[in-house]
């Protein structure tokens, strides 16, 4: 019996996927008679089982991100395994507390630890919008690859291993969410802090559905990039995009979720519609402003950050008004403006696809924590007096530069029973 655990440093430090394997026979490349039971053990009533066959027969409610990841990862692994043999798996998925909103009921014990147990099922756990689905897909994919494949076939610490992980996780994540999204959250989960230009949608457009004829061959060819079709651009690394000394990236939970997929679809429809010319112009202007912000961070010009962040937000609001998508809603504008007036705060943005559920702040990382105390006091006052019914808190998480990494199971002994 062997185990593998993988950590993904996304915004909140990451999902950890632990695998506990025993051998059974597996017939060829097709995934049949393979039982997988993922168990998020810090949420109530979240036991799920998937039995992969040529045809679906399970009556258990699907979890699209878990099920799609298993379909894609195990198909790829079976194709690269001698004789197509693969083992049964028991999976334990742990998510850091900051992936969940304060509106999710938690134990009264303040010392609940890094992975709190919630008294709600998975469907009732409100998230903070930190890219948890990408972290889940990436870490689960990496844990499966690390366990099933020999080190010379997959090693997440090498450029080749990260490229394989990135391509496979992107394919699974896009399929699970309807092929909508930039893919940046998966790239960040794999590579850490980076500048990113998305691959062409055509890269994944030709993949059949899992179980359809040709799926295995097409998936393997796509992930291994046999035809050199991946035109993604990912630059950066542990040091290249490190924040300037004395500057921290922090996140705020605004206790209100957004329907990200619906917002993205509406934004893309506007971009392709009658206002396409103006949309492209705004998109290009936003890109230039983002690049200017990245350059200031890269070269340590902290004094330029307030103006550059304001310029980025200006274009984001323009896009929101013209598309009808609340990328930076009025309530978020008011809150960001209020926080921008706090001593030690350079400014912030609404991250990801936008909406109401989170804020990202660049702020002074002072030794005494004075800036944090001022921000927390301002957020408490906002929630109490001017929050329009919302509660806002500063999360413990800070920005990370590292991406995926293999970790020792010793860190998680108490959760593996």
Q: How does this structure look, described?
A:
There is one protein chain. The protein is of the alpha+beta class and 417 residues long. It has two domains: 2-237 and 403-415, 2-Layer Sandwich (Ribosomal Protein S5, domain 2), CATH 3.30.230.10; 247-398, Alpha-Beta Plaits, CATH 3.30.70. It is 37% helix and 16% strand. It has eleven helices and twelve strands. The chain has a six-stranded mixed sheet with strand order 4-3-5-2-1-12. Strands 9-10-8-11 form a four-stranded antiparallel sheet. It starts with a strand and ends in an 11-residue tail after the last strand.
pLDDT under 50 segments (min length 5)?
1-35
> In what range is the share of β-strand residues?
15-25%
When the domains are counted, the total is 2
Distance between the termini: 15 Å
CATH hierarchy: architecture of the largest domain? 2-Layer Sandwich
Spatially, the strands of the biggest sheet line up as: 4-3-5-2-1-12
Summarize the biggest pleated sheet. 6 strands, mixed
User: Looking at CATH, which topology of the largest domain would you report?
Assistant: Ribosomal Protein S5, domain 2
Number of strands: 12
What would you call the shape? globular
Count of runs of 4 or more consecutive helical residues:
11
Helix content: 25-40%
Quick check: average pLDDT?
A: 80
Identify the CATH class of the largest domain: Alpha Beta
Structural class: alpha+beta
**Quaternary structure type:** single chain
Evaluate the radius of gyration.
22 Å
Q: Order of helices and strands, N to C? A: EEEEHEHHHEHHEEHHHHEEHEE
SSE blueprint:
Elements: E1 2-8, E2 15-22, E3 34-39, E4 50-52, H1 64-79, E5 88-95, H2 132-148, H3 159-176, H4 184-191, E6 195-197, H5 202-205, H6 215-223, E7 233-235, E8 247-253, H7 260-271, H8 276-298, H9 305-323, H10 330-340, E9 345-349, E10 358-364, H11 370-386, E11 393-398, E12 404-406
Parallel strand pairs: 3-5
Antiparallel strand pairs: 1-2, 1-12, 2-5, 3-4, 6-7, 8-10, 8-11, 9-10
Catalytic activity: (R)-5-phosphomevalonate + ATP = (R)-5-diphosphomevalonate + ADP
Enzyme class: transferase
Family: Belongs to the GHMP kinase family. Mevalonate kinase subfamily.
């Amino acid at each position: 019996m062997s185990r593998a655990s993988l950590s993904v440093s996304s915004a909140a430090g990451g999902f950890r996927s632990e695998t506990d394997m025993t051998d059974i026979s597996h017939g060829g490349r097709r995934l049949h008679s393979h039982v997988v039971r993922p168990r998020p053990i810090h949420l109530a009533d979240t036991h799920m089982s998937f039995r992969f066959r040529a045809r679906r027969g399970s009556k258990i409610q699907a979890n699209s991100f878990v099920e799609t990841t298993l379909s894609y990862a195990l198909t790829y692994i079976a194709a690269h395994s001698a004789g197509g043999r693969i083992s049964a798996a028991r999976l334990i998925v742990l998510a850091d507390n900051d992936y969940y909103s304060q509106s999710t009921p938690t134990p009264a014990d303040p010392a609940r630890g890094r992975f709190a147990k919630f008294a709600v099922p998975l469907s009732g756990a409100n998230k903070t919008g930190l890219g948890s689905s990408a972290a889940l897909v990436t870490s689960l994919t990496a844990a499966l690859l690390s366990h099933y494949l020999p080190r010379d076939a997959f090693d997440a610490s090498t450029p080749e291993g990260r490229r394989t992980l990135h391509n496979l996780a992107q394919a699974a994540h896009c399929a699970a969410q309807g092929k909508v999204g930039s893919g940046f959250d998966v790239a960040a989960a794999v590579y850490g802090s980076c500048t990113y230009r998305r691959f062409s949608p055509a890269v994944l457009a030709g993949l059949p559905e899992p179980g359809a004829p040709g799926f295995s061959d097409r998936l393997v060819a796509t992930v291994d990039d046999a035809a050199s079709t991946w035109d993604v651009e990912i630059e950066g690394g542990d040091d290249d995009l490190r924040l300037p000394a004395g500057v921290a990236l922090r996140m705020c939970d605004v206790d209100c979720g957004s329907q990200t997929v619906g917002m993205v679809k509406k934004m893309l429809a506007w971009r392709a519609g009658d206002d396409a010319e103006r949309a492209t112009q705004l998109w290009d202007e936003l890109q230039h402003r983002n690049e200017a912000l990245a350059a200031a961070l890269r070269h340590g010009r902290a004094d330029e950050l307030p103006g550059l962040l304001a310029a980025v937000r200006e274009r984001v609001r323009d896009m929101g008004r013209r598309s009808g998508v609340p990328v930076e809603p009025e309530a978020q504008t008011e809150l960001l403006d209020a926080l921008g007036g706090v001593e030690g705060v350079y400014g912030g943005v609404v991250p990801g696809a936008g909406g109401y559920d989170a804020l990202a702040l660049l702020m002074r990382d002072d030794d005494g924590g004075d800036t944090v105390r001022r921000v927390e006091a301002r957020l408490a006052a906002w929630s109490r007096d001017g929050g329009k019914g919302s509660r806002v808190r500063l999360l413990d998480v800070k920005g990370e530069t590292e991406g995926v990494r293999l970790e020792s199971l010793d860190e998680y002994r108490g959760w593996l029973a």
